Each structure stands twice: as structure tokens, then as C-alpha cells.
Amino acid sequence: MTFARDSRYDALSMALHWLSAALVLIALALIEMKGVFGKGGGRDLVKLLHYQAGALVVMVTVFRLGWCAVRHAPKAPAAPGGVEEYVGRMVHWGLYAALLAVPVAGVVALLAAGKPTILLGIDLPVWIDGGKAVAKRYKHYHESVANGMIALLCLHVGAALWHRYVRRDAVMQRMLPGG
């Protein structure tokens, strides 16, 4: 399968894509691991690392969106058109929205609960009033949107595999390092 160089994503876009993927997987793995530990020590560390991964996801996503605005996506090797193209765009924008919404809702939940929160070395003041009710609502948003994001990630990976093994086009290779 060969395709023109201008149909591939640039190295920075690829790095940001795979960094985002790694950070999301790390954040998911960490929060799932918290149940392994009892209250205190290890559990608190795992949660703290989960928070840091989420903060990094926001930073990388904001940078990615800025980079996308400056450096447009390369031309697709074969435009699928119609519903397939529309769904692909909606899944991508849904993922970007979730990459921002999930961590933000998590931080709001922590701050509303009055929990001391340090993100990337910055001690966030508890400035949200509303207590447990607001914290519970935003924790629910955080978890619900995270579950939606997991569904979108499955669609995204499934579509990449669909393009690679069923359609046999070069869509997936545009984001793989090394050509």
C-alpha cells in the first residue's frame, strides 16, 4: 500500500495522537487499580497519579486542537464520503470533547467535595460551593462521559482496523509512525 507523503500526518500530530492515547490508557488503568489498594497510602497515590494523567490529557488536547487549527489534516487516500465520513468526523470531535470534559468534570467534583487537589504541581484552591451535591453530580458527569469516551475509542479503533483489513486503504497508516 503506497500513498503520497502529503497524505500522512506530520510527526508532531502523530506524537500528540499517541501521547493522548497513552495518557488516556494510563488514566483508565490507574483508576481501575485503585480498588486493589485499601484506604490510604497506595490508593491515594494511584488516585493522585490518575489526576495528573487527566491534567496532562487536557494540556495535550488543548495543544492538539491548536495544532489542528494551524496544520490541517492531510488529504485522505480515498474519501469514503457519505455516512462513513460524517460518522468519522463526529467520532473525532466527540473524542476531543470528551478529552476535555472528562478531566474538567473530575476536577470540579474534587474541588466541590473540598478535597485538596494538586495538579501538575499547582495547588488548586477549593472555590466551588455546593458541597456533596455538586461533587456527586460532577463525579457522575465525569464517569458517564468517560464511559462514552470509551465507547468512542472503541469505534475509533474499530474504524482504523476496518480501514486496514476490510477496505484495505491507507487511512490507518496515515497516523502510524515510520510510514
Write the layout of secondary structure elements.
Elements: H1 11-33, H2 41-70, H3 82-112, E1 117-119, E2 122-124, H4 131-167
Helix pairs in contact: 1-2, 2-3, 3-4
The CATH architecture comes to Up-down Bundle
Q: Major β-sheet, in short? A: 2 strands, antiparallel
Report the strand count: 2
Distance between the termini: 10 Å
The low-confidence runs, each spanning 5 or more residues with pLDDT under 50, are none
What is the mean pLDDT?
Answer: 88
- Helical fraction equals 55-70%
Name of the level-1 CATH class: Mainly Alpha
Task: Report strand order across the widest sheet.
Answer: 1-2
Provide the β-strand percentage band. Answer: under 5%
Description:
- This protein has 179 residues and is mainly α.
- The chain has one domain: Fumarate Reductase Cytochrome B subunit.
- The chain has four helices and two strands; from the N terminus they run αααββα.
- The chain has helices spanning 11-33, 41-70, 82-112, 131-167, and strands at 117-119, 122-124.
- Strands 1-2 form a two-stranded antiparallel ribbon.
- Strand 1 (117-119) and strand 2 form a beta hairpin.
- Helix 1 runs antiparallel to helix 2.
- The chain is elongated, with a radius of gyration of 19 Å.
- The protein starts with 10 loop residues before the first helix and ends in a 12-residue tail after the last helix.
